[in-house]
Amino acid sequence: MGFREWRIRFGRGAARARLCALAFLFACACGAAQTVDWPAYGGGADEDHYSPLTEINRDNVSRLALAWTYDTGEKGNIETNPVMVGRTLYASTSTEKVIALDAATGKLKWTFDSGIRGTQPTRGVAYWTDGKQALIFAGVMNFLYCLDAKTGKPMAGFGENGRIDLRKGLRGDYRTQFIALTTPGIIYKDLIIVGGRNPETHPAPPGDIRAYDVHTGALRWTFHTIPRPGEPGTKTWPADAWKTAGAANNWGGMALDAEHGIVYAPTGSAVMDFYGGDRVGDDLYANCILALDAETGKLLWYFQGVHHDVWDRDFPAAPALYTVEKDGQSVLALAQITKQTYVYLFNRLTGEPLFPVHEHAYPASKVPGEVTARTQPEPDWPAPFGRQELTAAMLTNRTPEAHAWAEKQFSTFQSAGQFVPFTLGKQTIIFPGFDGGGEWSGPAIDPVTDTLFVGSTEMADTGGLATVPNHAGEGQKIFEARCALCHGIDRAGSGTFPSLVNVTARLPESKILDRIRHGSQRMPAFPDLDDKALAALLDFLRTPVVSASGSAASAATTHDYVFTGYKKFLDPDGYPAIAPPWGTLNALDLKTGKYLWQIPLGEYPELAEKGMANTGSEIYGGPTVTAGGVLFIGGTVYDRKFRAFDTSTGKLLWETVLPFAGIATPSTYMVDGRQYVVIAASGGRDPKGPVGGEYVAFALPASGAPEPTPAGR
Fold this sequence. Notes:
This protein is an alpha+beta fold.
């Protein structure tokens, strides 16, 4: 019997959580449970990233040692949180192959290679069993595969020869659509419920949430996140917007209350992310937490976190479910983190906020055709886990030269806090930046102490709008509508987005075309571009860079305004142009809404060597907590460290350097009475850092055990 089954038997209140943990651990001590699973992405359907294991604890975690490694033989970003059931670990590679490993040794059991070269991020798989048969559901680009968990072979009776094409049934010619299942679906009874990653520019399909039969692949229900005529929410869009509007998609994963049959799906913004002249209105159900009947897809309640989003403020991760004592009663609750660093806390059955949420007025957009919302919701409590407004007093003091440069640049920006609309001809500070705050890796919750743990990236970005010149050719229009979002209107790129200046002289045209057609990591594919359009785009990329206009156009259409591109506010040496901390780890008491501790997380090794340590850094990978009082987290881009902290105090208890940055959330489980902690190490976010693809597992040293050796491919 697993821990979550014990929780169902004993109940879900805070006191009962302690009782069920004690009962479960007593059973383990008596030999009744020598194997403890990590059965789903995030640890379980409640997405709390929690394990009841205590073999590794705050008293002995400093003795943690390498147990095994598995090299995938690939180089590319792996964001997978592995699933472990029985003795088998199920995971993915950077090209979206699915692998099954012996969870105690790292030895390969099987590999599933679809024959499709995966180019998108992959965060894990979903596991289903009825006790007789076990299935693995894995996303490979636009396909959802159903595999036999024992052999890795596709189940021929599922969909079309073992797979479903998720492009089908959305809108129009499916062959011109792009969708990728980057975060695994969630299992409810005999259903696999999925969202998907959509483009962030036109054209993009709608972000429908769909449930399929696990045996046949038959579509059982669909929830339209962009309402169709006659459905609630239609009046928050222009008439007929459902025919062309796109995204409002669930890309960050879902949580499930299986006892009450409710699935919770957070959604992102509608396209185009930064200009909404063609979607004037609040745009339900973009930027929402959706509580859906898991059996039927019927909407039970919703909360919209951003009205008419033009800042890319997606709900970035699945909510975490927990139970808390409030006003003398046990409340089934939900915690939703945000890029803004707000934490929204709700009664998950009713949608009632546990702390008041109020609408606050913000300035109107001055861009022709744009109509931003008059107000935006913010929770009164808890306080945000990141800084909310960048001021001149918060600029970097790393060196006098860096500070002077930052001051000069800062004086040219539209300095603001949250929800200030972009303007033409001037950059606006976005802080927290486009990557959060909180990100796709989500929080962890200790159900015994009612504490939420979340990492935060403290990065500032800038953004703005520009007009496409009237004389622009077809290639320029395509670039500025599809490519400028990431590579910039000036093609210069920023951070992990490479420069496209003189790209046709640096890369073979065949390689450029391949990436446009198939995508690459954060870059989506553009299957709707025909040969003529691709030729026009290449012709434009051969031309010198000419700045777009910042003036207002006389009339607004979808392509009159383009985003100038994601621009991190970095100093000339490539470090954040703001004062530290540049990344933090936070512990929030869910009973009171007060923070128990906040510490910097991550550093730049070359700065640490010069005495500038504990600055914090960008974080892409979430925490996992255990009943042993330990929080495990990787995620730090530049120092490649994997760390363990005391959950009570935030004290660092152990750290090690991974072969590549661990841009993923760790899993922990027990096999034969021994607890393991495993994390995917791949790098990929640091342009100067090493990139690979390994799974690295740690455990307490076994008595008399030989030194571990890497597992073969």
